[in-house]
Amino acid sequence: MNEAITAITTETDSATAGERLGAEFRAGFNGGAPDAIIVFASAQHRFDALLEALARASGCTTITGSSSAGEFSTASQGEGYVSALAIRSDEMRFAIGLGTGVKADPLGAARQAAASFRGIEGAPEPYRSALVMTDALAGHADAIVEELTVATRGNYKFFGGGAGDDGLFRKTYVFDGTRATTDAVVAMEILSRRPLGIGVSHGWIPASEAFRVTEAAGTRLTGLNGLPALDAIEAHAQATGQAFDRASPLPFFLHNIIGIRSDGHYRLRVPLNVNADGSIDCAADVPNGSIVHIMKTSEESAVLAAAQATRAALEALGGLRPRAALVFDCVATRLRLGRGFGNELKACADLLQPATFVGCNTYGQIARAEGQFGGFHNCTAVVCVMPE
Predict the structure, then answer these.
(1) Sheet holding 375-377: strands in order across?
(2) What is the pLDDT of residues 166-194, one digit of tens each?
(3) Is the peptide bond before 354 cis (omega within 30 degrees of 0)?
(4) Domain boundaries along the sequence of the chain
(5) Nearest one of 341, 320, 339 to 330, comparing CA atoms
(6) What is the β-pairing status of strands 356-362 and 322-330?
(7) How many CA atoms lie within 13 A of 364 on its CB side?
């Protein structure tokens, strides 16, 4: 049996926020301590004070999560909040692994994180998953997911995202117990007797011709079809009647992102800014030689995508009733939709009821499960559902 409590607080004092969440979890479990806690917190908080108070008040030190760029639950959404999920279970086991030095050695950091997993060599529980949160500003998120897949022999499902910092893009943290660490990746292994459901969808479609990436280095996109990438962007803006300002390109980029063609799907990358040499910095790596399109979407498509991801996660439970869920979506989606982002969350809530959820806006999303396009994404809804 799985028990879960979802909670969110607007308390601005970090220690008080941790104490209140911990007390709520204790009360909800009739005085018992959670087996694991997943927490997302605005960059406005002091993470050490928050996590220490949460551990003390809840009686649980198996805590993971990250800093975030917008926090939400079934009942509330906003910025500057803390959202959290507490779990008690007699059929799930949890272990947390931390990998450091992502910027210098992403593969080594992924192996460090996986070293704490207990199910790689075999476990009595048939279902193996992991929540993965990484410092996306350190880069290499795709490589981390690939290496985690190798380290776990392809037997684990992954879900999660890149830590945020309220849209400042300066410094992000992942949580391991009462520690908050930057330039790191954290992975919480979940071994379970019954499956977790994972769904992923984005709702974007191609709006331009296909381009081949002829020059790129990591997150910097320089050439498309042998010409400067900026030429393609400006030509698309002109052809579609949209304003594009090199000095302030983000309003255009939020509605015109890059889609990498991959096995019949599109993995999304958000352009962030234009450099003096005409190259474009993106929120995640764009591989050399890949085929890309400039993509478009609408508020209605984003809502439908969230609903599709939720349905896919529920279907993956194989008929089991949902108990609670985690929901992730991109900070770029929230910025683009504004108040309309609430409609996306309502679509999730309506499908999950009476189960509840918590989640956050991330700098990229992680999803790897059977029958789904896997790896690291931008502007994509990811939903993970835990059964009763």
Answers:
(1) 92-100, 184-192, 127-134, 157-162, 365-368, 375-377
(2) 999 999 999 999 999 999 999 999 999 99
(3) yes
(4) 2-201+302-387, 212-296
(5) 341
(6) parallel
(7) 33
